[in-house]
Amino acid sequence: MAFLYRPSLPTMSKPETPRPTPTTHSPRSRNPLPIFLTGAALLTLSSLLTRRSLLHRQKSTMPRFYHPSNAHPSLNINGRLEAYQALGLATINVASFFMMMGGGLLWAFDIGTVEEFRRRVGSGKRVDGKWTGREKRDKDNEDEFEKWVASLTGRKKGEEKEERRWSAREINEEQAREERYAVVEPPATKERGKPR
């Protein structure tokens, strides 16, 4: 029985490449972290505050030790104060939750500055004041929709208001003539309604 001996191949050294830094701990991803941590801290505090107020409310309904068991404890309930406290607690809870969620989303989408957020969301105008492509398309779509609605109703934008205004003026002029008042024509107006 012969054992086959295979010589080992020379090991090739791999080129050393620098390891990429993890994106979760980079300085750039630490920008939204304080928002997230502040939201988490506020959510924890507001949850503790809510729990404390609920326990206090529940404890106030229990009778004292020497109170007769067949009589309900006297409760002085102020509905307005209760509603105000409940609204305040709910507002604090919701605001802290959304602050935490906003910080988490900023971290997840790797948004570190306001400029990056504007660039990703695509604000309406560029710095030079011209419309970007998406907003121009939206404006074109709005104009197209307005034309479509106008074609359905059979009227243009200001046509209905103009008809109502003149019909009301004609009625007033007819009443004035019947009652023998002098009808005075209004002064000529510019486009924007200011007298010339």
UniProtKB/TrEMBL annotation:
Location of the region described as Disordered in the Swiss-Prot/TrEMBL record: 1-32, 126-145, 153-196
Basic and acidic residues composition bias: residue spans: 126-140, 156-196
Annotated Low complexity bias: 22-32
Main location per the UniProt record: membrane
Keywords of this entry: Membrane, Transmembrane, Transmembrane helix
Gene: AIM11
GO CC field: membrane; mitochondrion
PANTHER family linked to this entry: ALTERED INHERITANCE OF MITOCHONDRIA PROTEIN 11
Protein family according to the UniProt entry: Belongs to the AIM11 family.
Subcellular location: Membrane
Transmembrane regions: 33-50, 86-109
Species in which this protein is naturally found: Alectoria fallacina
Annotated protein name in UniProt: Altered inheritance of mitochondria protein 11
Bilayer topology term: Multi-pass membrane protein
